[in-house]
């Protein structure tokens, strides 16, 4: 599936995007409010999983004009509890790109994958990601705190799924 938005192009991953994916994922600033940055080797393993693991549905996000790689969106745990994830390069933060991309990605991915609900977990201090999730229709379900971090858990239910359940 290829999805075009006003400023981005979302497309399936292929081997040619590996170096950009690695740079995005081992950059400490890009992942500062996530579960930490990856090493090069762990980012390579993750990239191979994205290419080959059927429980992960992921699309690369490219700048529509320059075709530069700017991030990725994904739904993982497809065989258990589908979970949304997203990561964008720090150079593109604060421009509304995450909202634009996820507003296009989520409904099409849910339809394509025959899902009606997806969850997301975000660090309680990651205000930008919280705003994005709430803007695109996620509802907060709970807060979970541990000694290491505090997370908010969100759920998105598709209108299509609600109609199918009736």
Automatic annotation (TrEMBL):
Gene3D superfamilies: 3.40.630.30. InterPro entries: Acyl_CoA_acyltransferase (IPR016181), GNAT_dom (IPR000182), N-acetyltransferase (IPR051531). It comes from the Bacteria. Residues 1-166 form the N-acetyltransferase domain. This is N-acetyltransferase. It comes from Vibrio zhanjiangensis. The lineage of its organism: Bacteria, Pseudomonadati, Pseudomonadota, Gammaproteobacteria, Vibrionales.
């Amino acid at each position: 599936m290829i999805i075009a938005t006003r400023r981005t192009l979302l497309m399936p991953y292929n081997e040619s995007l590996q170096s950009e994916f690695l740079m995005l994922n081992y950059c400490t600033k890009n992942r500062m409010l996530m579960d930490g940055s990856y090493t090069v080797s762990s980012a390579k393993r993750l990239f191979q999983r994205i290419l080959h693991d059927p429980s992960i549905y992921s699309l690369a996000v490219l700048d529509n004009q320059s075709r530069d790689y700017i991030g990725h969106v994904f739904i993982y745990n497809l065989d258990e509890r589908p979970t949304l994830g997203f990561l964008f390069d720090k150079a593109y933060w604060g421009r509304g790109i995450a909202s634009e991309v996820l507003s296009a990605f989520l409904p099409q991915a849910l339809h394509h994958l025959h899902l009606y609900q997806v969850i997301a977990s975000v660090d309680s201090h990651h205000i930008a990601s919280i705003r994005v999730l709430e803007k695109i229709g996620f509802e907060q379900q709970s807060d979970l705190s541990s000694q290491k971090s505090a997370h908010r858990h969100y759920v998105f239910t598709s209108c299509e799924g609600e109609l199918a359940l009736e």
